[in-house]
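Notebook B, p. 112. Complex prediction, attempt 2.
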Amino acid sequence: MKKISIVIPAHNEQNNIHPLVNELQKVLNSTGYTFEYIFVDDGSKDNTLNEIKIQSEIHPEVRYLELSRNFGKDHALQAGLEMATGDAVITMDSDLQHPPEMIKEMLRYWALDYDVVYTYRAEANAHAKKYQRFSSKMFYKGINMLSDIELENGIADFRLLDRKVVDQLNLMDEYEIFFRGMVKWVGFKQKAIPYTPANRFSGEASYSFFKLIKLALNSMMSFSVRPLYAVTGIGLFFSLFSVLYIPYVFISYFFFGQTTASGWASIIATVAFFGGLQLFVLGVIGMYLGKLFMQAKQRPNYIVRSSNLVKTGNDLIEL
Ligand code: UDP
Ligand code: MG
């Protein structure tokens, strides 16, 4: 019988663990596959880990990884994917916003030989506020423009991955992990299905506004060097402009005696503009350099503090 691993990152989700496991059990028991749950406690400050441990005593197929601190959702997902042993892996949030019912549909497509079945938010997203909808749209527009992959608006970390895709993702030894992009990048046979997110069952979303901006910038940059080309283009444009403009200045000075001494405002404006532009371009280059620096340090993307499983080859042994 084929085995499915469900990888679930959790950060301060103490009241969601029990209802989620209940919902998943209801859906999964009728599918004819065997299952394992891999909860990744991403440095929760509340009782999340204990709640998971309680579930693992009731259901032997519940496994957990406790990370040593909060590493962020994508790194938590990475930890879970590396520990998963299933023939397919499903990743989903722990706040019940990703409807467990949809797993059946994913499994149907998997049986039809799709390697990746991923979800995106159906357009009518009644729960999001206006500015959230707008900023999320801008985020995907930006990413599609600046990188070499095409992401659907509202693409989610709720997806099924075949074993061969998981193996491929596990080989990608990147510091800046952005699964929504990486899964697209690896290719294979992919199927997108829309979903309507439910309300968060309990607790609050962990992402603040600034965290989201940082995430957006990082994801764009880790996916492409196109911003570097863009600033090179801007630089080139202005150098060409000055190549034409400088002879004009000299000719009007030497041959026509024009010194345009009254040009203070235009000089200040130009100096300020180019000063700003240069700093901006340096900043873009610097951000890439920073990424190289972080990658060169080869630090682990996550550290496991405790777990009820260890991986040996392709098998998990329970401790
Ligand atoms: N999460 C995590 N680490 C973090 C932030 C979030 O593991 O640093 C988990 C969280 O527990 C949830 C999922 O990632 O299962 C999505 O987070 P959240 O609901 O806060 O964000 P949103 O629904 O707005 O995407
Ligand atoms: Mg959520």
